[in-house]
Known about the structure:
By secondary structure, the protein is α+β, with helices and mostly antiparallel strands. The chain has three domains: 2-100, no CATH class; 134-202, Orthogonal Bundle (Helix Hairpins), CATH 1.10.287; 210-363, Heat Shock Protein 90. It is 62% helix and 13% strand. Strands 2-4-5-7-6 form a five-stranded mixed β-sheet. A two-stranded antiparallel ribbon has the order 1-3. A hairpin with a 2-residue loop joins strand 4 (275-283) and strand 5. Helix 1 (2-43) packs antiparallel against helix 2. The model is unreliable at 314-320 (pLDDT under 50).
Amino acid sequence: MKNKTIYIHKVYKYIFIQFLYLLISFxxxxxxxxxxxxxxxxxxxxxxxxxxxTFMSKYVYIIVSMLAIVxxxxxxxxxxxxxxxxxxxxxxxAKGDLEKRIDIELNDDIxxxxxxxxxxxxxxxxxxxxxRKAQQIKNDLITNISHDLRTPxxxxxxxxxxIEEDKYNDEVHLRYYTKIAYEKSKNLNIIINDLFELTxxxxxxxxxxxxxxxxxxxxxxxxxxxECQLSQCNMKVRTNFSxxxxxxxxxxxxxxxxxxxxxxxxxxxxxxxxxxxxxTKKEDNxxxxxxxxxxxxxxxxxxxxxxxxxxxxxxxxxRNDGGSGLGLAITKNIVEIxxxxxxxxxxxxxxxxxxxxxxSESDK
Length: 364
């Protein structure tokens, strides 16, 4: 109701301004007419007296009115011109030209109206771009999910078909087919579970059970749990922890998942380097953890997308490594819901993932 009152006042203000324009035009016309009349009276009074009774008395008001209209048009021409430009621009925008901007530099209601339309167009353009990006992300997600689900599913169907058709030589052969189908089923289950977890993380619907924990002790536990996997990859973890306790307030299960994902990633893509180095330190009011591997570097063109869902460096796209392609995306989301940040850098010597997590209030 308040906004409606404001707009009604603006309409009355506009009408009043137009009335003033017209009034000024009539006054100006009358003054101009009297000025001309005075000059003619001074220079050639006999001419004026000859036509005064016949012409002037009959047409003075018509002449004044015509002069008023001419003066009014001259006064309001700029505004009319801008209004015409405004209408033309709005028509072009209505036809879909969102790159069009209204170029009006008046400091009045028309100028404000033009600026408002420009702001609307910019916001609409941003929304359109966001919708286009969202559509592209959705298309990419469908493509990647299709690829990652189809690969193990095709193997499962293929080997179960061989079993169904009795196309195996003996029980050993049968168990071999069964084992492959089972492993592929587990891989499929990992992808589906990771996808659900990532969706919950991004929707912030995953509950967090936060407690104060010693981050250094937690990392040591993760390394201990993964000793067997590290041994199978012929890799070894080297640690260099600072003397700081690094107490954080976080969900321990989620933080464990972060370090498991990053160490798994280092084993998967950095096995040529033989070592994984983990460093910790306190920096301002944050705990900083670096996980470094010495395998093949990540191309610089891939680094901005490394945390995207299902994104993989092209050369590893078809590697049968049992990963879901969601590990780094999940890692990033877990770190961010703990108000932290994760960075990655890579060169010919090393690839470094740096995790930054806020320290607990008691450890700051």
